[in-house]
Design brief:
Layout (H helix, E strand, L loop, with lengths): L4 E2 L1 H23 L9 H26 E2 L8 H6 L13
Antiparallel strand pairs: 1-2
Length: about 90
Amino acid sequence: MVHTGDDPAFVALSIVIAVFASCAAPDLGARVRRRDAGPRWIRGAGAAVAMGGGIWSMHFTGMLAFETGTSGSGERYGTAIFPANHRMPDGCPA
């Protein structure tokens, strides 16, 4: 039987990212209706990037938190920088 688990530090980081994104995106979205200081589309785009980037970042951080219990050919912190460098079990074609 393969034992799996979660890295508590990455789980906590994923939660922090989720909370930050869920606070930042609605705040930016609420500013779209204001008429002061600049074009509205910039605020709308900022809200979209904050929410989309938060979901994307939280997803990959959560994936890094999962420990498969098997050896892998990918590296953990490289995945955080470039997600396409995901962990593949040894012997799998890349």
